[in-house]
Amino acid sequence: QLGPQPPASVSMIAGFLAGMAVDIPLHPLDTVKTRMQAPEGFAAAGGFRSPWSGLSAVVVVSVPGSAIFFVVYEYARHFLERNVPPALQDKRYAIGRDAVAASLADVSACVVRVPCEVLKQRMQAIGPMVTPPTFRATVARVSSEGVRGFFAGFGATAMREVPFALIQMPLFEELKHRHPWAASARARGDTAHLGFIGMQSGCVAGMIAGVATTPLDVAKTHIILTENRANRRGLYQTMNAIRAECGMAGLFKGGVPRAAHCGLGGALWLGAFE
To answer: Which of 13, 188, 192, 199 is the most buried (most CB within 10 A)?
Structure first.
């Protein structure tokens, strides 16, 4: 049984702070992952140079996306619990309700998240440039394709985010409620312990979801970094092309930094939100 639904303003502020807690400190890890997945290869995409490239896009666009996610997620969870048929209100079906709520929240957040991914990843894959591209220059380059340019890879991003949310959020809720300290911490109203429980549960859930969705993430990166629209392919065609060129290992490029990023990100993001 869920507690009272938090006001949208509370969810938004908590989501905003959670996004800040993850996207800024873990940005260099995300940069390494992007360059490992880049079609031209890690070294040619920039190697370990300028690991903070693309941070401005994250601060301006991505963090608000985290706020949108949690507003929609909390509203959808409570709405579904109140409005599903009585037969589906049993706690056994809570994991299914959480999965639906997480999917709705992630698709909603993609409206903000995709433009951020396009700007961020094109700033991260700096190639042989000595000076990383500025936020303004990247915006100008992407806008040459019109509004459509900011949504390159929208379908691929949504196809990555929905399975990720379907794995991460129900697993997080289940681990959080089954944690051996959870009942006593909730009874005492101990927010510090609840936050720590959230961090542990979020880390495990994020790492598992991150590894499982790495092939989708690799394909999404290839699509976004293909600046010539005529050369851009769909998600499945891109995955097939990667597998044909590099084998199954190619679909798991950047898997280690992605697992670390999603695990640490889940701990910080969900722990901070809790």
So the answer is: 199
DSSP collapsed to 3 states, the chain:
CCCCCCCHHHHHHHHHHHHHHHHCCCHHHHHHHHHHHCCCCCCCCCCCCCCCCCHHHHHHHHHHHHHHHHHHHHHHHHHHHHHCCHHHCCHHHHHHHHHHHHHHHHHHHHHHHHHHHHHHHHHHCCCCCCCCCCHHHHHHHHHCCCHHHHHCCHHHHHHHHHHHHHHHHHHHHHHHHHCCCHHHHHHHCCHHHHHHHHHHHHHHHHHHHHHHCHHHHHHHHHHHHCCCHHHCCCHHHHHHHHHHHHCHHHHHCCHHHHHHHHHHHHHHHHHHHC
Q: Quick check: 3 pLDDT over 70?
A: no
Residues 28-45 have pLDDT tens digits of 999 999 999 999 999 999
Reply yes or no on whether the pLDDT at 21 is more than 60: yes
**pTM reported for the whole predicted model:** 0.84
